[in-house]
C-alpha cells in the first residue's frame, strides 16, 4: 500500500499530477490537479490511495488526509466507484458532504455527477453516523455516544477491530501504534466509537 508520495511535482495534467522521486515519476489521479499549481517544480507530499484490481493499479492523490479517508469510505458504498468518489471530492468540502449525509439530504447528494436517488439513499444508509468526526464542533458537540461496561477482553477486541478499520484507510504501522496507545486510555465504547476516537487522534498527530 502506497500511503503517500513525497517528491518534486514535475507536471500537472488535466486529470493527474506527476511526482518525481528517486528517478521515478508517479502518476497520481486527482479531483482538481491544478489545486497543486503553487507546488510546481517544488517538493510536495501527497496523500495517496493505492487502488488495486486484477487489471489495474492506480494512485489517487489528496492534499488533506481527511479527503483520502472520505474517498476510502465512499468506495465502500454500493454504486460508487473511484471516478464517482473523486468527482464528489472535487465539488464539495468534507464537512459539507458529511453534513448532507447526517441530514439525509438526498436532494443535495443527487447533484453530484453520476449520483441518482438510489445511490444517494445508499450513501446515507452506509455512511450516516460514521463520518461525524469531520463535522465542525458546533454541529457534533451534542452527539452522545452510547457507552456500555465492557470486560477487558471485549474492549481489547473492539480496539483491535477499530485499528483494522484504520489500517484499511491507509494509516501506517507507526500511526496505528500511536492510536492503540491512546485508545487504551479511553472509556468503553462501540467499535465505531473507537474508530472515531482513533481518527481524532491521528488527525491531530
Largest β sheet strand count, sense and barrel closure: 5 strands, mixed, barrel
What structural class is derived from the secondary structure elements? alpha+beta
Number of strands: 5
**SS field, number of helical segments:** 9
**Beta-strand level of the residues, as a percent range?**
15-25%
Helicity, as a percent range: 40-55%
- Please, what is the oligomeric state? single chain
Question: In sequence order, what are the helices and strands, one letter per element?
Answer: EEEEEHHHHHHHHH
Which sequence of strands runs across the widest sheet? 1-2-3-5-4
Q: What gyration radius follows from the Cα positions, in whole Å?
A: 18 Å
Task: Calculate the terminal CA-CA distance, rounded to whole Å.
Answer: 21 Å
Global geometry? globular
Q: Give the integer mean of the pLDDT values.
A: 84
Low-confidence stretches: 138-149
Task: Give an overview of the whole structure.
It is a single chain. It is built from nine helices and five strands. The chain has 205 residues and is α+β, with helices and mostly antiparallel strands. The chain has a five-stranded mixed β-barrel with strand order 1-2-3-5-4. It is globular, with a radius of gyration of 18 Å. The two termini are 21 Å apart. The model is unreliable at 138-149 (pLDDT under 50).
